[in-house]
Amino acid sequence: MDLGLQEKVVLVTGASRGIGKAIAETFAREGSAVILNARNPQELERVVSSIRRQNDRVSGIAADLSQASEVERLAEKALARFGAIHVLVNNVGGTNKIATFEEATDEDWINAFHLNVLSTVRLIRAIVPVMQKQHWGRIINIASESGTQPYPVMPHYATTKAAIINLSKSLSKAYASAGILVNSVSPAMTWTPLVEELFTAQASEQGVTLEEYRQTFIRELRIALDRPARPEEVATAVVYLASEAASFITGTNMRVDGGTIASI
Asked: Which of 59, 185, 194, 262 has the fewest CB atoms inside 10 Å of its own CB, making it the most exposed?
């Protein structure tokens, strides 16, 4: 199937590893021009160099999107690089702390909101005028199944992902007449380097092996497929939503959750 992405310019945030890296790689295979963003310049350059082996229209821009000035700089540089942005994938986000409600501090809540919500809001604000002039655009925001079905822990994270789902629905209505489609994608637990780091720390604290902790987490989440998602599985959903094949889909929250979410 031709997804019609060969002439499109794609900006992917949080793209140096995990889901973001897989998304960038998948767009590159489709022939898109891809701009990768991440905080760490060295990690970013390694990934960009790797992807360039299959597509030379790939570049990287390092920026910390928790900072408003860095978001503006990224948008300006990205537009200067290829002269357009057709697809924006807001993937940057996460949490550096697995905490209960009692353990999560005000700082944890503020940091989660800045990283997961404000970075997305600011970058969309910067890119939407370009998409309006093109009368064509795709915005895909990476949320989480915890935004719909939260865990007993990490409420500071789940709340921000619920906000992303709500934001995506609102913007889908606001910009439909401009030819801009806005959707969110909600993965279940996805086995990425960041998740492995967090799980390793938690397993050590609890005196169990990494695999024991992982299996316990899967059972508690009740993932029907009995395993975490792979980054490539999430990437496939994102690329589909950006394509011409999904030209009548906007305002949806696509679940890539292995059957985790219990609601219909």
From this structure: 262
Residue 194's pLDDT is: 83
> What mean pLDDT is reported for the chain?
95
At residue 173, what are phi and psi to the nearest 5 degrees? -80, -35
Chain-centroid distance of CA 39 in Å reads 14
pLDDT of residue 236: 98
Kindly report the pTM of this predicted structure: 0.94
pLDDT in tens, 88-136: 999 999 887 789 999 999 999 999 999 999 999 999 999 999 999 999 9
Burial of 107 (0-12, 13-18, 19+ CB in 10 A): exposed
Angle formed by the axes of helices 155-175 and 119-134, nearest 10°: 20
Residue 21 above 80 pLDDT?
yes
CA–CA distances in Å: residue 234 to residues 48, 103, 177, 245: 20, 30, 28, 17
Catalytic option among 151, 157, 175, 240: 157
Q: pLDDT tens across 230-242, in order?
A: 999 999 999 999 9
